[in-house]
Amino acid sequence: MIFLIIGTLSAKAQVSIPNINISVGEASTPQEFSKGLQILIWLTVLTLAPSIFILTTSFTRIVIVLAIARRAIGVDQLPPQQVIVGLALMLTFFVMAPTVNKINEQALQPYMNNEITQKMALQRGFEPLREFMFRQAEESDLALFIKMAKLDKPESTDDIPTYVLMPAFVISELKTAFKIGFMIFIPFLVIDIVISSILVSMGMLFLPPVMISLPFKIVLFVMVDGWHLIAESLVSGFS
């Protein structure tokens, strides 16, 4: 046993551990200052990456529609929040796969092969993402933010800056998500109204209608294969 422990320790001692050293000091040359500024910018981008992912992809619409569907059925805790977010992430990866592939082919791989500069890689990487957001953003929302930014009327999509496109895209996604959620809510609302009317006519005023309508709503959702229809409508809405 002792020899086994010693052998294990000696084997671990042979493994080289990389040394990561981040220090703050005076920059003696402009090149050193430029490298330090680039590191600071990349750290800032990594910090904001979750927010950028949520606001520039299909995640916002998908997670809102799934949450409204769960609320419409009447089971606030089923599926759990982790399942809703996980399903939204999986559908987001599926929807954004063509855009991610374009970013990889046009920007990431050429940059990794030292074929283009970092600035050019960022420009090429944003182009597929801008195309995706332009397809989903409504013209009225784009016109609103162009007007508030006090910009001239753009002749093409290239004239619209990204800081104008992003809020217009988010507003459009929120609007579309609530439209889809409203259509999902209608049949379950009809079931609640019918059950409530039946209970009132029978004089059962103290029996909660939700207790009776919940099994019918679950059966209806299962019979029509609700999750299949919701996933299909969400994915096809981005195509």
Top keywords for this entry?
239 residues; mainly alpha; 9 helices; 0% strand; elongated
Can you give a write-up of this model?
This protein has 239 residues and is mostly helical. The chain has 9 helices and no strands. It has helices at 2-13, 30-55, 59-73, 81-112, 118-136, 139-148, 162-201, 209-223, 226-237. Helix 3 runs antiparallel to helix 4. It is elongated, with a radius of gyration of 26 Å. Residues 1-21 have low confidence and may be disordered.
Topology:
Blueprint: H1 2-13, H2 30-55, H3 59-73, H4 81-112, H5 118-136, H6 139-148, H7 162-201, H8 209-223, H9 226-237
Helix pairs in contact: 3-4, 3-7, 4-5, 5-7, 6-7, 7-8
The chain-level mean pLDDT equals 76
Return the string of H and E elements.
Answer: HHHHHHHHH
Continuous helix count: 9
- Uncertain segments are 1-21
Largest sheet: none
Overall spatial form: elongated
Quick take:
With 239 residues, the protein is an all-alpha fold. It is 76% helix and 0% strand.
